[in-house]
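Work through this protein:
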Amino acid sequence: MPSQTTSEDDETTSVAERLKNLFKRHKKIIIGGTVIAVAAGALIIRAKGQGVTEDSESSPDPAVEDQKRQSPCEHPVSGYERMTKYGPQTVGDYVRGGSRA
């Protein structure tokens, strides 16, 4: 039985050889996966940024500051039943909207 001595050089060579062989066999899959990952990352970054390069709080538009939110016009709301942690709760008809200042 011959003695098998392995040095660190043999191990790194074998690992490198295995990686080369793996890449050769699965080259298209590896490249395709990389392209898909990069494209997905670019789309996520683009979607988060939405092309906004300037912080909206740093230079607010004075015209927007003067406008107040307008309440919706007054309208009736039909009664309904909603579920709470204590059980169903009935909410009667009521009127909503309009200014009540």
